User: What shape does this take?
Amino acid sequence: MTAQSSRTAGSVSSSSVAAGPVTTGPVTLVGGGPGAAELLTVAAVTALAQADVVLFDRLAPSDDLASLAPQATLIDVGKRAGSHPVSQTGIEELMVEHALAGKRVVRLKGGDPYVFGRGSEEVLACHRNGIAVTVISGVTSALAVPAAAGIPLTHRGISHAFTVISGHAPLTDNELEGLTLLGSTIVVLMGVGTLPTLSQGLLRHGMSAEMPVAIIERGFSATQRTTVSTLSAVLADAAAAGVRSPAVLVVGEVVRLAYSGDAAAEDLVARAAEFAGTD
Assistant: This one.
């Protein structure tokens, strides 16, 4: 069977349900990583190759799906800011309906299904309907995108921990205070829209105005771009640069260690000496 073209999800057609008894198909939640096909795991590639139906997100690696899932019907269920053509409930219903029709279903998600991916909700939907479900972890953009920009999340003598937060909604004062007191690297996913409340909240709770901030847009794409600023200046700098989602934000001293991959060796050595910790 050849791969069918991508389509926007709707109700499952009656022709997709075979006549007579049907064995329920399995569902596999696949973490697609930050969008680059080469960062798919071996398990993810295997699941896609065996799939009859793939429901994929906007930030999942979809450019090569026709070759990665040659037997599958490809269904675009991606959400964009202010535009949700298929609701979360609708996605879960599609997964269940195709699985009950005997199809091997892959739910392809960006990043990792269990890192702000609503994967646990989809697993529960399968459990409620007696459908076997497997979760394949993916490379989360919280780790991969800063690395692509040359930013380590931890460094001896600078930061021994990092916290990953969702910027989908503003943080509470207690959360902001906690982040400030931790003194660790902060990684924010989906945080462009709430950058004003985040930056002002961290300043209000005592974080240094000179704390470095990096905004990495469109990680692993040909148009990846990093804007480096400070906590006090990041709003103005982001506006001047025209920063847009998708982007990963990094707040912390580790941003000073960022390198582009083409720096002269002596520059990297000097920077390493500056931030060298003790054994």
